[in-house]
Amino acid sequence: MVRVDGNGNSSLICVRGLDKKYQRGSEEIHVLQGLNLNVEKGEFVAFMGPSGSGKTTLLNLLGGVDVPTRGSITVAGDEITHMSRSKLTEWRARHVGFVFQVFNLIPVLTAYQNVELPLLLTKLNKAERKTHVETALGVVGLTDRMHHYPRQLSGGQEQRVAIARAIVSDPTFLLCDEPTGDLDRKSADEIMNLIERLVAEYGKTVLMVTHDPLVAKRAHTTLHLEKGALVEAAGKEVAAS
Amino acid sequence: MAIPVIYNMRSVKARWTSAVVAVLGIAGTVGVFVAMLSLARGFKATLVHSGSARNAMVRRAGSTSEMDSVIQLDQEKILEDAPGVARSAEGPLVSPEVVVIAPFPLKSTGTDANVQIRGVSTKAPQVHENVKIVAGRLFQPGLNELVVGKNAVHSYAGLDLGNTVRFGGGQWKIVGVFDAGGTAFDSEVWCDSNILSEVYHRPQSIFSSLAVRLTSPDALSTFKDALTSDPRLTLQAEREVDYYDKQSRVLTTLITVLGSIVAAVMGIGAVFGALNTMYSAVAERSREIATIRALGFGAGSVVISFVVEALLISSVGGALGCLAVLPLNGLTTGAMNWQTFSHLAFAFSVTPILLAGGIVFALLMGLVGGLPPAIRAARRPVAAALRAL
Amino acid sequence: MKFLPFIFANLFRKKIRTVLTVGSFAVALFLFGLLFVVRGAFTGGVDIAGADRLVTINRTSIIQPLPLSYRDRLLKIPGVKQVTFANWFGGVYQDERNFFPQFAVDTDTMHQMFPELLISDDQWRAFVADREGAVVGENTAKRFGWKIGDRIPIRGTFIPGIWEFNVRAIYHGTRPADDTTQFWFHWKYFDERKPFGKGFVGWYTIRIDNPDRAVEIIKTIDQEFANSPWETKTDTEKAFAAGWVKQFGNIQFLILTIGGVVFFTLLLVTGNTMAIAVRERIGELAVLKAIGYSDGFVLRLILAESLMVAAVGGVLGMFLAKLFTLAGDPTRGLLPFFYLPAGAIAGGIATALAVGIIAGMLPAVSAMRLRVVDALRRV
Description:
heterotrimer; A: 241 residues; alpha/beta; 6-stranded mixed sheet; 4-stranded antiparallel sheet; 7 helices; 10 strands; 25% strand; globular; disordered C terminus; B: 389 residues; alpha+beta; 10-stranded mixed sheet; two-stranded antiparallel ribbon; 16 strands; elongated
């Protein structure tokens, strides 16, 4: 169960008292204040909130791409907030699968090669990598397009390749930042169907940021970011423990 | 409708790092090009100006230069009466000369270079009208005295006025310095021909060449005819200017050939640099270009606009290159005259024509570097460019 | 390396740009090769000069001769093993522009003094037997299409008249820097036919037993003939060649300057190209880092791309330079040889790689320092 009250330390992802502030010129902006979160394995959580509320910041912090000003983030028992930059990079490779709104794929590589990218960081040999890549592409239903370049794929297909890449090394959880933001209704539906399947059939844990309520509805739980902290339903604020 | 040039100027300014790279590439190429040609021209000019249009250089028929020519005194006597020979109060203006080379240490390297030593008679300054004694005096006949050209004083160690030098097994006193107007003679050392012949174990009746002052430049043909028709003479005559012009040929050819190859190759490199810059410019500005065209400017305007931009950049590069080389003008250096194996001091000669040539070269490179990208810019379908991120 | 396809893919992203940059390297390295060749043409003789040979000329001037009688006196000097002599002929073959060096040589000793110049025994014997015989270097023979048995007329300059010779031998060099443009004929024939100056030689070449004793032997020789009407000046062959080269002009400086300009410009062009290439890919590089590629990896990636361009361009440029030298001397005989030494090729490629690293360093570091957050925020 997803909790935002700071309890439930046996969760897969456990966030306590997260603060993040930026310096913009002479101003200090507090994007996140005292944020708490617990996510169990296999959960599908959507984060919503107005523009500038810090959704993407939260995702970046959870993915180890940014460091908080204060607070702790524990994933599968690892406390990541005090890891060195290089250790964080290694950790990310093993535990996180990213799906972005844009810039997902490397245009000079084929779909196959794009999906293979995370595996090149491992010690798997060529044959082993092939198995994983083909499996991942099979899950997203794009085996017949694996040697096409991104420019030869539609927006929806590109995003499916991105998802294949995100799952190919079997990460602990997936982080999706507005995955359907650039797509038309039909493609968006396809992508959401795929993500739902990943959760239901493969037991993946997915944290997703979106501004689209229809997309958010697909998730198990929707959390709103207001004034730097998470609220469960509309209005009910969370007390920090 | 033409796209205003101010757009190009501002664009270049906005992407100034790339522009600077292209400018420097072209500047370097133009600089090297102009510098090498100035070197060749300076060498040639020094030699060519050594000759006077009113003088004839007489050597033995079949010789390639003064160094391998041998003329007997009796031939000289016959020649003095030939038509076209100018005369002064002291007699016919014919200077028999003995030309040899001797090693003297160069100031720049400390090692020896072969200096051309010219044994002359006291008539020499009258025949070679460009040569003037500017310090000291002419040597006295019969004595071990030297007069030194002003470039020789600068190039070799120990040839200052008043010094004594050892050469040819004897001691010689430097009694004068002459100025020959920046010609080959300025690198020479002159002395009494009779003494020189003695030192070089040659009979005093043997000379290397005769310098003859003609009554007028046109008198040359009459003079030459007289020489060839006289069976007693085995001599050849040519205008002094032409003799020295031929002398410059070998080294000038070498410098020009090598310099041109270098400049051509560098030019290709500079064009590559310009192409790179312009292609990147087109790529980064594809949306701007599409907007401009959507506004109504035709493809032709776009092409011209980019070519103008390329020419702007290359002309700055060309000007920079020329400016960088300009200080070289008048700078003296030395090289070996391959015809006589003697050392010759000369100066870089950066002429307006060479500078203009440099700018033209730069513009050419700009044109070649700007045209293909410009055409690509014009060819891109407007709609696709506007849609692209 | 498994990342090689990725590096190549990145380079072919903008084909024209890569081609142009590789082309810039090729052009620059071609030029470097050319500069090496010119430098080598002037200094090559110095490098291969015989360590155990000395050259003795007239102290007053190189154009002054030395008496033939000096030969026996030289042989008596301790340390001197062999002595040969020669005269400069300086004739003209058809046109003054067809220059090649001609020497009247001592047929008894010339061959042994220069063993690095190969002549078959039969040919040498034929040359010695024919008073009007000539030995021609392979370069000159090829240039004019001469073969054994041809009769070559040469017009004398300081000794007038037409001199005709029969080509009896062709010599080959053993090293690329060997001068194979020379033309040798009998000194005895030369001395006989001279109308004046008989019994005099242009210079002596001396082989000594121990190169380490060169300095004292030189001193002894020059002292032997001091205060005579024909004083000598002796030097090692190397010093003699080096002194000769120094007179040509400040070639070294010219070459260094041109080389420097080219090197610097190449650095700029490459650096700029790499910087643009990195700027365009900030989003991709951010994705790579998000996936889990380290900062160090990104640094190495950019450097590898830069090095790849440099390596391909460098090898291409050197290859073209080598080809160019095979086409022969563009100045038609003014330079004694025209070739690219192996050392220069290696040095050139090393220089190219150095430029690749230096030029790629700044963009590579900026790519390394890139923070994923900043890059993604730039949408």
